[in-house]
Amino acid sequence: MPTETFEFQVEARQLLQMMIHSIYSNKDVFLRELVSNASDALDKLRLEALRDDSLGADVSDLHIALETDQQARTLTVRDNGIGMSREEVVQLIGTIANSGTAKFLRDLKEAEDGAAAEGLIGRFGVGFYSSFMVADEVTLLTRRAGEREGTRWTSTGEGTYTVETVGDAPQGTTIVLRLKPEDAEDRLYDYSSPWKIREIVKRYSDFITWPIRMAPRPASGAGEQEAPAEPETLNSMKALWARPRDEVTDDEYHELYKHISHDWSDPLETVRLQAEGTFEYQALLFVPAHAPQDLFMQGYKRGVQLYVKRVFIMDDCEELLPPYLRFVKGVVDAQDLSLNVSREILQQDRQIQLMHRRLTKKVLSTVKDMMSAAPDRYATFWREFGRVLKEGLLSDAENRDAILGVSSFATTHDPAEPTTLARYVERMKDGQEHIFYLTGESRQAVENSPHMEAFRAKGIEVLLLTDPVDEVWVEAVPEFDGRALRSVAKGQVDLGTEAEKAAAGQEREQQQQEYAGLLAWMAERLSEHVKEVRLSSRLTVSPACVVSDSDDVTPALENLYRAMGQEVPHVKRILELNPKHPLVAGLNRTHGDGSPGTALEEAAELVYDMALLAEGGELSDPSRFVRLMADRLERTL
Hints:
19% strand; 9-stranded mixed sheet; Ribosomal Protein S5, domain 2; Heat Shock Protein 90; 20 helices; 23 strands; 4 domains; elongated; alpha+beta; Rossmann fold
């Protein structure tokens, strides 16, 4: 059959320009595409040879060969796979140049908007045409296994392309790229350079099943080292996630972790997952032993490496794990996945969501197993990553219970060892209904807070929450295992057995009558700062404390919202007085003696300010507080 010349249509020319200049963000991916196509051809030949004994194809040494020629400025990619017939060349590679070009271009534009990429995946011509990003001319020579004649396809990517039948083509496909001259001046894009080819193969195709070999070449000039006498295999072919678990050593896992994470330390935990069925994928994830310094900084690169059929697609694939697991490193290799035409941008589809959901649950279940099987490793994990994991209590309602189940918190039960909520519940006192906690800036500040006095006196355990995220998630998580989470600095406190509660209630009624006048007067005097003054059942030592209503936003959360640029109304709080404290009893006597004077007003103001300071709050007028306190001290001397 004679050589035929075809002319590109206007739409086809537009499509080619779009692929070369718009779709791919990195020119290096052209070689990834060609190697991936070659790997697919080898897979198909192996399968076809098993099905058809009469095929007569040589499958003894299936491989991909790369050849560079710096003088001629060419790069050759060759495989001895299934190959193509003339009809397949026209159908597969000529797709974008013949029928359906207008629809293809329209679909591609829609796919760039993230809506219609799935129908474009896997078209040989798409990846093949990425060659024109780096080549002035591309020649393809192919012969299908079992056929005698081959086909040559040639184009410069401009106006025309030719197709001809040849009789001496080897089995498989050979692609020769005549590289653009301008790339020769930039060492980073010199694709005729062996070192550049090694770099690309190592990055994108290291785990391809078939050997990728670089043909030996003679030294081209003085001072250049002799090339190896035998072909050099460029890829490791060691896809650890695809090998049986008992065939992989810990050292091999650790080596892969260090390679992909750039961490010198061994990982804390290795997580393997193999999903089978209608949608198959494999995952090999690692939990680091140390948190990176920039874990909480804006711009931190998160996510795992994504492969499709062992072909590298992208680093830092954020769609596969939630932000609160951003410290997890590893590899996910899918057999089929909806990608855009360049394989560089994932589309948010059902498969991605299923992978995201299952990988998240697998990591959390691994942490749970670590708690019981390796408590020392779990303690390290929580010390390094507990703060970031708790972000999931706000953002991931589906896995909230699982996150709570693997979380640990400082507690008054044991100053040296954090506790889980499950252990807290096991230690709850008879008659205790709630899980109590207190938030603050530091453990020392929380432990010394006046809000803790009654709980300490009765031996009731309190969680000490000092991470900034704690202030937020406790507002979003109402309970654990049917037990409500209650702040010891909010609402009324009613502790003890039923008999103790009844006795305390009677005592409060008597005290309420005794202190009614002082409470009403102080509420009016401090109305600018508080919405109520009442007697306290949580104080045993301090004269006063400031608390919030059960549903009110705490001052710390108010400040956090304002720091984030959100305007929130100021919420007045409640001043609680300890009727058994001598200072409060003295205030009540002074108020009952007659009309309150300036000294009593200043004393009331000082009591409120001291309560604020005791919980780590900020005074509205520090200088006035210092002046009043100095005057009081002076009178006592």
